[in-house]
Amino acid sequence: MLLARLLMTKRILLATDGSESSRRALREAAAFARNGDMIRVIHTVEDPVTPVTSAFAKLIDLEQVRRDMQREGEEHLARAVLYLREEGLDPQAHLFDLRTTGETVPEAITREANEWGADIIIVGTHGRGGVRRAMLGSVAEQILRSAEVPVMLVAGEARPHSPLRAGGHYERILVALDDSETSRRAFEYALSLARAHAASLRVVHVLDMPGPFPEGFDSAPLLGAVRAVGEQALKWATRRLHEAGVPGDVELREVQPVGEGVADQIICAGKETDADVIVLGTHGRRGFRRFTLGSVAEDTARHAGRPVLLLPAHAPVE
């Protein structure tokens, strides 16, 4: 059912603010889209009146600031629309004045995604929201926490490659898999995405071994159990790859004991694979410890140097 949904016309919501990460997100949206997909590009204009600017109201023409911000937003949208049309797409463009809606940037983006029925939200992870800088830990993370659909995060420092290497399709997709339900849902999404784009899929399971242990403690049974869980997850993934007819492979990786985490291994696998996109669930387990958006997923998105597509635990996949 997920494949059928991905093969149908998709609704792609792209949030832009004119920053470098936003421009990269624009290119990734073009790579993600296929002929017939609908793209809606939105730009939010925040109210320049803040407690700080209010103190200087007599020195600053706030109405002129508002007009300048709106003009810049319209210019960002016009450039985005022109680029997407040159790539053979037919985008829509909308400018939202948050002064009139009373919303924050994340609230406006997620509301638009819900009302329009978006299938995915694509956003840069480091950008500008009006006059305030939007970091991964604020705007993008808030979008992901409240979004009801997958969210693709594109970092401003991502590699400067052209995503349209195969007529607009991805060629190599990487998905991180553990034994959680959310992770399996992310795998199924990545599997269907690979089929829709005729791409290969690499599946990695990262072992985050517990420890250190007290002297004299026999850790072999525990470590063996952790490894067995990973091997079982990859065995299941191998079977699903075969059933779906998707080319790919699986790999069991292990976190090094000093100074490394699960995200480091995922990022390393992405580089080795030269993945076009990394797919993750936002809530899963590493070893026996639960990881949240603030750890593995966020660290991967921040440092991967390539787009990271995150599937929230509550996002529908059927």
Automatic annotation (TrEMBL):
SUPFAM superfamilies: Adenine nucleotide alpha hydrolases-like (SSF52402). Belongs to the universal stress protein A family. Residues 8-154, 170-311 form the UspA domain. InterPro entries: Rossmann-like_a/b/a_fold, Universal_stress_UspA, UspA. This is Stress response protein NhaX. Pfam families: Usp (PF00582).
